[in-house]
Write a structure and sequence with these properties.
Number of strands: 10
CATH topology: Glycerol-3-phosphate (1)-acyltransferase
Largest sheet: 5 strands, parallel
Strand content: 5-15%
Radius of gyration: 19 Å
CATH architecture: 3-Layer(aba) Sandwich
Strand order of the largest sheet: 4-3-5-2-8
Number of helices: 10
Structural class: alpha/beta
Helix content: 40-55%
Order of helices and strands: HHHHEHEHEHEHEEEHEEEH
Distance between the termini: 11 Å
Shape: globular
Amino acid sequence: MRVRESFARDLLRLFVWYPLRLVAERLPFGAALGLYRAMGRLHQCAIRAGRVGRIRAAVLRIAPDASPRAVRQAVDDAFATHYVNQLLIFQLPRLTASNLDQLIEIDGISRLDAALAHGRGAVLPIGHFGPTQLPLAALGLLGYAMLQIGFLSDAGLSFIGRHVAFRLRRRYEARIPARIVPPGPGTRQALDHLRGGGLVMTTGDDGPGQPAFGHHAAFAFPGGPLNVPLGPARLALSTGAALVPVFLEAGRSAPYRLVIDAPIGAPAGSGRDAAARAMTAAWVARYAAAVTARPGWWHGLEAHFFP
């Protein structure tokens, strides 16, 4: 998410990456989540009412039949989700296979194992929805060979942004049990990883403010058309890997639940471009259902509350 650089933002960075980080990374998982959600509530109270009104309007475009109570909850969720997504990285180095269930439960692992049984790997498209790096860390800790195509750039950041926030975030990401490669140059590595039977996780929609890489197509989506990368489907088609959508939702016994969905196959008799578009459309339809059910978890709302 790109926002305007300012002195106030640099002060916030220094606070987050020094005193807050040093406390938060030592907290129990539940207490850390509570802290991040509280920061979201403070942010919501601090901004202008007009900006909150724009978020409410965006929620209603996504879920026009939502009750006033559901809209208020979605607005609260939007701020909480931003801070949890950005700061949960402080907890990931302490996550292990034995304590995963304190943060996330996983449904559908047998689908993933069945997809991998063919020996051609699997592409896992995941939306900008909820804490996006938590599933990557969880599957890596369970022993899956994970590679993520992820975008992290210091372009346009201030000195503090580059030398504090960006530098330290990269250090924390390096402790996730997965290889993270950039879009574009990392595509060759992703292809090789899939041919070796590994898992490639990549976002199925562009994050707010991020540059678009590769082939895209516009699809109908709650709240308006969404420009979606065809890259995940094209990776699967190029290697014979399975395209296995994964989605986050609220957990039953843990804060989050990772749902590993049924694979999306290529339509018979289609050329590569048509097949990629059809497979991406199928993913978008499943993603749209998740966003409609819990609009406040969708990162697309961030564009309305950051200047």
